Amino acid sequence: MSRGRDSPTPFHRVRENEVPTQLSAGGPDRIGSPDVSPNPQPAVEVSGLVKRYGSKTAVDGLDLVQQPGTVLALLGPNGAGKTSTVEICEGFRQADGGSVRVLGLAPGSEELRPRIGVMPQGGGGYPGIRAEEMLNLVAACAADPLDPRWLIDVLGLGGAARIPYKRLSGGQQQRLSLACALIGRPELVFLDEPTAGMDPQARRLVWDLVAALRDDGVTVLLTTHLMDEAETLADEVVIIDQGRVVAQGSPAELTANRPDDQQLRFRARPGLDTSLLSAALPEGLKVREVTRGQYVVEGMIDPQVVSTVTSWCAQQGVLAEELTVARRSLEDVFLDLTGRELRS
Amino acid sequence: MTTFAPGTFKPKPGRGSLAKMLFVHARTEAVLTLRNGEQILLTVLIPLALLVALSVMPVIPMPEPRAGSAAARIFALAIISSAFTGQAIALGFDRRYGVLKRLAASALPRWLLVSGRVCGALVVAVLQIALLAVTALVLGWRFPLSGLPWLALLIVLGTLTFGALGVLLGGALRAEIVLALANIIWFVLLLVGGVALSASVGFVHLLPSAALAEAMEAAVVHGTAPGVGPVAVLVAWGVVAGAVATRTTRLT
């Protein structure tokens, strides 16, 4: 059951019937018109994007603006429309509606492609090509590429440089694909699920790389369904579900507390009568045993509430362990918005 | 704080030189073909074995001069092997492994993606024919040098036509189905498509395999220009296959 789907949320949430303001003004003719804001040209500008596969609408009127030099994470469950959106921006798929401009240009244009780096989902390479040959081939397409040898080593592929692509592990293929995306010193990088199939060390490395790219002024648009990835890397998180933007903002904005939306968590003997604790607490606080022995008090948590909880536990003869007062995690926000049910 | 020196990834985008891209892409395609054991079997070893068999085994009917006729047919077969069957299978698996998407995402222009593949295939075809030609000369083929330009032209035309057919097959279907079909078609063309045996029925002359074998016969046995008929058949198949393939080929 989704906890807060219809409760007000502390951040801007796009209502389902809200007409995006950019939609009416969308389209290429808008570029350079005198009434644009003084902001620099967005790196990525998507308005009213629609993509259908047969009768299924994968992207349903999506709007997105990314400023240059920022990291934007498209966060959503599987099938939310992340890859469709990114692949339209990359020029691999045609939109069925709306407009997309990347660095002010049409996606997939010959003028644009040398300026961007792309890491497709699942990588890509000739089955029989050696890792270093693949990177050299992509490097040959760039005017002033990074040193392939250096990049191979940075990505921990030194030992795999002469192994054919089809015999690389999934994580190695992903890292090679990332190398191919970065080799041409692009100003904008699209990373579709960049850490899928990677071990924790490789994930750290990718995070480090993305941070370095951002520090050097590269714009990064990545998709992920990993909360910690979005929270760690992104300046801006756009949560999408069923092809629509359901929330957007910085991780801090998305997880910002309202005074009455906090959690007190503690661990104690399973099976405590939560209705008794509820009665002891002020009006408006909810108490649940979320998993065996894990209790959550939700609402406005003040020192009085903490004191009441610990003394109530003392009366019951139990010790409240691991007692924390927490802000909502990005995961809570995500699950509230996209539901807690398993998706097929 | 990252472990990379500031400025390491400072953007400096731009497209590489077209000549270098074409060279590296074509070389990659050729090297990958020549490194693949199954491709070598199909494009070199089987044609070589058949060339020897057709040249020296009198039980197989073959017009005189025997070695020259055998060379013409096997040259045609070699081009069908690499440009059609080899290309189709390679493309089917390249799509499976996402390389077309990977390259389409790079700065490589689309026309260069096709040209690089064509040049790679031509390099392979020239190497095949060179090796087979040396063998044929040893087996008694007497090459009239006036046929050399026509042989060169037919290598290019045959590679383009069968390459287009290979892309048509390998660009649309699943890799395993491509693998099966490409080998079956190769075998059928060899036996009844006017390659190993002369075309007996009329419509066989309209197949690109028979057309290439007949045109090769004119060039490498008689040293003359191929007839208009076979060339027209090859061009027509190539143009139609190419036009259809541009609509049906998918990146993955």
TrEMBL record, chain A:
<keyword id="KW-1278">Translocase</keyword>
<dbReference type="GO" id="GO:0046677">
    <property type="term" value="P:response to antibiotic"/>
</dbReference>
<feature type="domain" description="ABC transporter">
    <location>
        <begin position="44"/>
        <end position="267"/>
    </location>
</feature>
<feature type="region of interest" description="Disordered">
    <location>
        <begin position="1"/>
        <end position="42"/>
    </location>
</feature>
<dbReference type="Pfam" id="PF00005">
    <property type="entry name" value="ABC_tran"/>
</dbReference>
<dbReference type="InterPro" id="IPR050763">
    <property type="entry name" value="ABC_transporter_ATP-binding"/>
</dbReference>
<keyword id="KW-1003">Cell membrane</keyword>
<keyword id="KW-0547">Nucleotide-binding</keyword>
<keyword id="KW-0067">ATP-binding</keyword>
<protein>
    <submittedName>
        <fullName>ABC-2 type transport system ATP-binding protein</fullName>
    </submittedName>
</protein>
<dbReference type="GO" id="GO:0016887">
    <property type="term" value="F:ATP hydrolysis activity"/>
</dbReference>
<dbReference type="GO" id="GO:0005886">
    <property type="term" value="C:plasma membrane"/>
</dbReference>
<keyword id="KW-0813">Transport</keyword>
<keyword id="KW-0472">Membrane</keyword>
<dbReference type="GO" id="GO:0005524">
    <property type="term" value="F:ATP binding"/>
</dbReference>
<dbReference type="InterPro" id="IPR027417">
    <property type="entry name" value="P-loop_NTPase"/>
</dbReference>
<dbReference type="InterPro" id="IPR003593">
    <property type="entry name" value="AAA+_ATPase"/>
</dbReference>
<keyword id="KW-0046">Antibiotic resistance</keyword>
<dbReference type="InterPro" id="IPR003439">
    <property type="entry name" value="ABC_transporter-like_ATP-bd"/>
</dbReference>
<dbReference type="InterPro" id="IPR017871">
    <property type="entry name" value="ABC_transporter-like_CS"/>
</dbReference>
Automatic annotation (TrEMBL), chain B:
<feature type="transmembrane region" description="Helical">
    <location>
        <begin position="40"/>
        <end position="60"/>
    </location>
</feature>
<keyword id="KW-0472">Membrane</keyword>
<feature type="domain" description="ABC-2 type transporter transmembrane">
    <location>
        <begin position="28"/>
        <end position="197"/>
    </location>
</feature>
<dbReference type="Pfam" id="PF01061">
    <property type="entry name" value="ABC2_membrane"/>
</dbReference>
<keyword id="KW-0812">Transmembrane</keyword>
<dbReference type="InterPro" id="IPR051784">
    <property type="entry name" value="Nod_factor_ABC_transporter"/>
</dbReference>
<dbReference type="InterPro" id="IPR013525">
    <property type="entry name" value="ABC2_TM"/>
</dbReference>
<feature type="transmembrane region" description="Helical">
    <location>
        <begin position="184"/>
        <end position="207"/>
    </location>
</feature>
<dbReference type="GO" id="GO:0016020">
    <property type="term" value="C:membrane"/>
</dbReference>
<keyword id="KW-1133">Transmembrane helix</keyword>
<feature type="transmembrane region" description="Helical">
    <location>
        <begin position="227"/>
        <end position="246"/>
    </location>
</feature>
<feature type="transmembrane region" description="Helical">
    <location>
        <begin position="147"/>
        <end position="172"/>
    </location>
</feature>
<protein>
    <submittedName>
        <fullName>ABC-2 type transport system permease protein</fullName>
    </submittedName>
</protein>
<feature type="transmembrane region" description="Helical">
    <location>
        <begin position="72"/>
        <end position="93"/>
    </location>
</feature>
<dbReference type="GO" id="GO:0140359">
    <property type="term" value="F:ABC-type transporter activity"/>
</dbReference>
<feature type="transmembrane region" description="Helical">
    <location>
        <begin position="114"/>
        <end position="141"/>
    </location>
</feature>
